[in-house]
Write a sequence for this structure.
C-alpha cells in the first residue's frame, strides 16, 4: 500500500513522493524525478523518515523551570499549557497594549496552513499585534527592486535558458540551495547544449562542479564594484545597447557620469575594480565584453550577494548591467532584481485586518525587544528565535532578560536552540502527521497535497488545534474558526476558491488522493516582454514609467550608503573596514545540501553528506599552520566557535565559509561546539531595507584548537539541555 504526499519545507524543490506503508506506518518514500526533477540534485528527502520520526521528537507540552535559555522544563498537560498561554496573552495585552505582541519570523512550515498565519489571525481578532515586513532571505533585493522596475516580478521562466548564448550565475548556487524544481535541470540541459556558464562566487560551490562551469572568485560584498566596472568597460568599448538605454531607462546619464569618473575623478575601470573585488582586470574586461556580445545572455543573481551590508546597491548595479546590454524582456535574457516569476494563481487563506498599523523589518525584532516594544513572542515552527538570527550570544542575552520580554511560546518538533528559550514549549506535528497544501518555489506548474502518513508522535498537535482552544477562552472561537473546526476544512475551502480561477484543477478529493496536481497547460513567462515590445501601451510601474537607474525617490530619502544611482558603496565589515586589522578574514555562509536551513541538523545520517566545517584557502591555512581536518577556533568580538578546518583551493584567499543552519551549542565557556555561523554575525541591519547582512562578517582563526578533536557529530542529545533533561511532572 502507498499514500501520495509531498514535502512542505522552505526548500525550492517542493518534492512529491509516495510513502510505502506497512502495518499503517511509512517504511520508505519513493520520489518521482519526472514530476519534480529537483530530487535528482537534492539529498534532503533521504533523511525525512529518520529526522521526523526520530527519538529526538518533543512529545509533551512543557513549561520552563529554570533560567530562560537553560533548557530546563517540566511536563504539563495540554489544558495547563493552554491556560498559561491564555493568561499571559491577556495580561500582556492589558499591561502593554496589543502592539506588544509579536509572531516571530518562521518558515519550518512552508505551506498554505501555516502556524504563524493562524496565530496572527487570532491576534488580529483580539486587538492586533506588531507586524513585520521583509524576509531574512530577500530583504535587500525585494525592497529595492521596485525602486528600479516598479515590481518584484522581474524573473523569467528558466525554460528560456535554452535560448541564451551565455549564462552568468552571480552568487547563485541552485545545486545546493535547490532554487525551484526546474532551474538546475534547465541549467544542465543548457550546458549539454553547449551554452557557456560562468559562476561568480567566493567559494567554488557545487553548482560549478555539477555544470563544469567557469568559476570566477570574488570578494564578498564587492558585487556592485564588479557590476560597475563591467558597465564601464562595455561603454568604453562601445558595446552597450544605447537604443535600449535611451528608450526604456531614466537617468542613465547620471550613472554614466559616475562610471566615467566625472563626479569623483575615479573612472570605474576594470583596474579600479581589481583592487576591490580581487578579480584580475583582464578577467573583468573579458567577462564584460563577452556578456555584452552574447545576445541574448542571462545574468541570474542569487540571493546571497544581497545579504551583505551594501546589498541594496549591489542589486541595483547588477540590474543596471542588464539594462546596459539590453537583455531585458527577451527570451533567454534577464532583468536582475529579486527575480520572482509570474506564474499561476495560488491558494490563499484570507486574513482579518490587523488593527495595529505599526510594523518593523523582520530582521530588527531583537532591537524591538531590547527597547521594550515586544513583550510576548509566539515562535511557531521556526528556529529564528535564536539559531537563524544574527549574533546569537547577544540575542540570547536579550531573551534571557524577562523584564524585556515577559512571555515566549515555542511550538516545534525538537529541542532546538530556539526551543530552549521558551516559557511554554509545545510539541508540534511534522509534515508526516498533518495534511497541508504546498506550492512550488518561483516557478512550477503544479500544486501538492501533503497527506498524513503517520500518527502524531506522543501528544503533539498542529498549532491550529490548540489556538482554537485559546480562542475559546478569549471568547473568539466562532470568529476564529469561521465554522472550520479542522485544518482540512481550511484547505478544502481555499482549494475550492482557487478552482474558480484555475479551472483545470480536479475536485478536492481527487487532488488530495493523488497528492497534488501537475497542470497540463504549462506557463512560460518572460519578464517585461510586453514593455519592450509595446512600450507605448505598457510602461513600467515606476513614477517615470521607465526603468529608474536614477531614483528621485531614493534621492529624496538621502539615506547614507544609498545614493540615487547604483554607485558602489562600502558597507560595514568589508575589506576596507578598520576592524579588518583585528579580524583579517571575511566570513560567509552557504546553504548546504544536507540541511534545509536548520532542518536535519540532528540527523547523523545527513551529516555524512556534508560534515560541518570551516572552508579556508590553502595559502591562508599554510600561513596559520592549519592542515585539513584540524580543529580550529573561529572568533570575533561577538563570539567563538570550534570547528574542523577544510583546506582547499576552492575558496578565495582571505575568505572563510561555514554552512548556515547548525544548531548552536555553547559550552560552559560560551564557545559554540557545533559551528553555528550566527555566533559571529552582526545584528546591525542594512541601510535601506534594514535587512539581513549575514555575509558581511569579519573574523579571525586560532589554530589549532586546544582539543585534539571536537567530540564527534553531536555534543549532546538534541532533547537534553546542558542543565539536564526535562523531567516528567
Amino acid at each position: 500500500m502507498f499514500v501520495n504526499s509531498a514535502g512542505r519545507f522552505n526548500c525550492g524543490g517542493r518534492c512529491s513522493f509516495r510513502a510505502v506503508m506497512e502495518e499503517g506506518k511509512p517504511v520508505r518514500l519513493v520520489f518521482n524525478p519526472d514530476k519534480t526533477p529537483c530530487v535528482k540534485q537534492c539529498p534532503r528527502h533521504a533523511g525525512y523518515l529518520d529526522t521526523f520520526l526520530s527519538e529526538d521528537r518533543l512529545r509533551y507540552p512543557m513549561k520552563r523551570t529554570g533560567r530562560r535559555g537553560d533548557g530546563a522544563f517540566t511536563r504539563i498537560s495540554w489544558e495547563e499549557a493552554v491556560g498559561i498561554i491564555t493568561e499571559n496573552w491577556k495580561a500582556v495585552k492589558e499591561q502593554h497594549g496589543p502592539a506588544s505582541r509579536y509572531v516571530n519570523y518562521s518558515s519550518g512550515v512552508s505551506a498554505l496552513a501555516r502556524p504563524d498565519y493562524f496565530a496572527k489571525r487570532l491576534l488580529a481578532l483580539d486587538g492586533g499585534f506588531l507586524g513585520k515586513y521583509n524576509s531574512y532571505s530577500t530583504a535587500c533585493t525585494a525592497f529595492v527592486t521596485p525602486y528600479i522596475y516598479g515590481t518584484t516580478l522581474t524573473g523569467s521562466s528558466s525554460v528560456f535558458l535554452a535560448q541564451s548564448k551565455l549564462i552568468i550565475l552571480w552568487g547563485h548556487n541552485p545545486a545546493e540551495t535547490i532554487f525551484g524544481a526546474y532551474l538546475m535541470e534547465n541549467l544542465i540541459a543548457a550546458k549539454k547544449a553547449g551554452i557557456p556558464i560562468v559562476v561568480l562566487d567566493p567559494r567554488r560551490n557545487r553548482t560549478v562542479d555539477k555544470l563544469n562551469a567557469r568559476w570566477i572568485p570574488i570578494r564578498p560584498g564587492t558585487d556592485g564594484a564588479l557590476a560597475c566596472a563591467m558597465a564601464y568597460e562595455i561603454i568604453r568599448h562601445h558595446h552597450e545597447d544605447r537604443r535600449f538605454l535611451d528608450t526604456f531607462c531614466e537617468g542613465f546619464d547620471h550613472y554614466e557620469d559616475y562610471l566615467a569618473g566625472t563626479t569623483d575623478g575615479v573612472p570605474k575601470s576594470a583596474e579600479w575594480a581589481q583592487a576591490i573585488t580581487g578579480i584580475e582586470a583582464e578577467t573583468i574586461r573579458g567577462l564584460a565584453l563577452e556578456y555584452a556580445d552574447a545576445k541574448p545572455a542571462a545574468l541570474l543573481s542569487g540571493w546571497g550577494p544581497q545579504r551583505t551590508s551594501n546589498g541594496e546597491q549591489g542589486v541595483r548595479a547588477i540590474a543596471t548591467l542588464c539594462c546596459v546590454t539590453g537583455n531585458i524582456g527577451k527570451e533567454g535574457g534577464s532583468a536582475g532584481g529579486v527575480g520572482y516569476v509570474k506564474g499561476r494563481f495560488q491558494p490563499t487563506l484570507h486574513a482579518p485586518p490587523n488593527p495595529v498599523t505599526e510594523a518593523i523589518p523582520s530582521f530588527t525584532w531583537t532591537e524591538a525587544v531590547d527597547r521594550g516594544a515586544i513583550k510576548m513572542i509566539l515562535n511557531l515552527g521556526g528556529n529564528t528565535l535564536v539559531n537563524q538570527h544574527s549574533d546569537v550570544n547577544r540575542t540570547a542575552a536579550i531573551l534571557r532578560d524577562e523584564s524585556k520580554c515577559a512571555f515566549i511560546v515555542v511550538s516545534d518538533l525538537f529541542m532546538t536552540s530556539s526551543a530552549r528559550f521558551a516559557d511554554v514549549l509545545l510539541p508540534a506535528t511534522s509534515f508526516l502527521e498533518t495534511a497541508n497544501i504546498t506550492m512550488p518555489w518561483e516557478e512550477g506548474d503544479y500544486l501538492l497535497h501533503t497527506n498524513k502518513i503517520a500518527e502524531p508522535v506522543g501528544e503533539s498537535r498542529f498549532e491550529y488545534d490548540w489556538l482554537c482552544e485559546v480562542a475559546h477562552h478569549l471568547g473568539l472561537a466562532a470568529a476564529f474558526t469561521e465554522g472550520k473546526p479542522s485544518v482540512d476544512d481550511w484547505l478544502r475551502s481555499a482549494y475550492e476558491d482557487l478552482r474558480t480561477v484555475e479551472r483545470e484543477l480536479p475536485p478536492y478529493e481527487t487532488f488530495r488522493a493523488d497528492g497534488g496536481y501537475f497542470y497540463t497547460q504549462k506557463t512560460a513567462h518572460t519578464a517585461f516582454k510586453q514593455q519592450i515590445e509595446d512600450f507605448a501601451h505598457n510602461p513600467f510601474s515606476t513614477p517615470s514609467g521607465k526603468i529608474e537607474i536614477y531614483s528621485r525617490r531614493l534621492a529624496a530619502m538621502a539615506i547614507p550608503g544609498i545614493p540615487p544611482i547604483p554607485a558602489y558603496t562600502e558597507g560595514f565589515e568589508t575589506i576596507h573596514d578598520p576592524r579588518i586589522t583585528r579580524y583579517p578574514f571575511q566570513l560567509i555562509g552557504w546553504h548546504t545540501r544536507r540541511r534545509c536551513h536548520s532542518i536535519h541538523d540532528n540527523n547523523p545520517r545527513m551529516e555524512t553528506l556534508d560534515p560541518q566545517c570551516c572552508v579556508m584557502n590553502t595559502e591562508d591555512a599554510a600561513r596559520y599552520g592549519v592542515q585539513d581536518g584540524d580543529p580550529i577556533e573561529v572568533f570575533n568580538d561577538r563570539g567563538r566557535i570550534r570547528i574542523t578546518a577544510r583546506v582547499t583551493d576552492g575558496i578565495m584567499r582571505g575568505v572563510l565559509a561555514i554552512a548556515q543552519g547548525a544548531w548552536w551549542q555553547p559550552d560552559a565557556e560560551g564557545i559554540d561546539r557545533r559551528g553555528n555561523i550566527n555566533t559571529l554575525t552582526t545584528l546591525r541591519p542594512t541601510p535601506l531595507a534594514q535587512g539581513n547582512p549575514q555575509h558581511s562578517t569579519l573574523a579571525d582563526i586560532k589554530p589549532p584548537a586546544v582539543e585534539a578533536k571536537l567530540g564527534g557529530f553531536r555534543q549532546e542529545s538534541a532533547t537534553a539541555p546542558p542543565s539536564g533533561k526535562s523531567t516528567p511532572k
Summary: Residues 78-96 form the longest helix (19 residues). The chain has three domains: 62-130+350-429+457-514, 150-342+526-557, 578-702. The chain has a mean pLDDT of 94.
